[in-house]
Design goal:
The structure holds 2 protein chains of 2 kinds. Chain A is mostly beta strands. Chain A is built from no helices and 11 strands. Chain A is globular and about 40 Å long. Chain B is built from no helices and 11 strands. Classes of the chains: A mainly beta, B mainly beta. Chains A and B meet through β4, β5, β9 and β10 of A and β4, β5, β9 and β10 of B.
């Protein structure tokens, strides 16, 4: 079952604009992570935000987390053509002492040069 | 450090056959997880191995199995292949188990079942 649901499913913007993607989840979490996937390749970790954090920055990325609303957003500022990819949020579940991430279906971002 | 390596990169099999996929984690990483990615179901957790022990398994039939060796390398096996098993299979490693550190993914094995 999908824990995280990204919105929108697809987003097309001009180079230089900002891109915002949202993620909603259903249950309590330890942390929330964002990953990027270029077409047909593996996922690349972007940022991890813990449940007791509200905002985190990494370069041109800004992630917010609202545990009361069970939602997170990923903002990419000054987008570049190389940012074209699918972006996934994932929630960490350390139940039973194992490591399992539950992924949403992703937002497909297209940055037009 | 070298990244996560998955072999082979592409695989074409026929229904009813079996297949073995291989994953070499980042040096020093002891946790290896496997995920299946399809257009319809997205990314789904298959299983996680840590120190040669399966720690958790997703909701997949018994045809899907795996193992981890003492050097942390892992293999997954799918027996009696079905058309619906066509997918990108992704392996990911982490230094430890427990969902508090990022996963490092390989580029996957694209399996096509005909």
């Amino acid at each position: 079952s999908q824990q995280g649901e990204e919105d929108p499913q697809a987003l097309s913007i001009q180079e230089g604009e900002n891109a915002t993607m949202n993620c909603s989840y259903k249950t309590s979490i330890n942390n929330l992570q964002w990953y990027r996937q270029n077409s047909g390749r593996g996922l690349v970790h972007l940022i991890l935000i813990r449940s007791n954090e509200r905002e985190k920055h990494s370069g041109r990325l800004r992630v917010t987390l609202d545990t009361s609303k069970k939602s997170s957003s990923l903002l990419i500022t000054a987008s570049r053509a190389a940012d074209t990819a699918s972006y996934f949020c994932a929630t960490g579940d350390s139940g039973a002492g194992s490591y399992q991430l539950t992924f949403g279906k992703g937002t497909k971002l297209s940055v037009i040069p | 450090k070298a990244g996560v390596t998955q072999t082979p990169r592409y695989l074409i099999k026929t229904r009813g056959q079996q297949v073995t996929l291989s994953c070499s984690p980042i040096s020093g990483h002891r946790s290896v997880s496997w995920y299946q990615q399809t257009p319809g179901q997205g990314l789904q957790f298959l299983f996680e191995y840590f120190s040669e022990t399966q720690r958790n398994k997703g909701n997949f039939p018994g045809r899907f199995s795996g193992r981890q060796f003492s050097n942390s390398r892992s293999e997954m096996n799918v027996s009696t292949l079905e058309l619906g098993d066509s997918a990108l299979y992704l392996c990911a490693s982490s230094p430890t188990t427990g969902a508090n550190s990022p996963l490092h993914f390989g580029n996957g094995t694209r399996l096509t079942v005909t």
